[in-house]
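Let us work through a complete example step by step.
Step 1: write down the sequence.
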Amino acid sequence: MPLPAKARTLILTGSVAAVTVAGTWYGADLKSSQEVKKVSVVRQQATTEEILAHMERSRGELVAKKTSLEKKIAELEGRRTPKPTTDQILEGHGQK
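Step 2: predict the structure and record it as tokens.
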């Protein structure tokens, strides 16, 4: 008993989609593996000076991030302290 045309179309569409997804996934994994190998080769061939320069750059970036985060935290803590209400201000001046 042959399949109806609609069922055949759905099966074919699903198959093509599955093959496309699998190929994309495999290609992305292959590219990631190649990049990891490339980075490891570069690291193995790097001189001590290059390693130190890279570490200094990384440290500078981390210090900049730390400073930025500390500034944001200070701003947030400044906002969090309660501001005096009008009644408190008037009481402080003896007007209430």
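Step 3: interpret the result. The chain has a mean pLDDT of 89.
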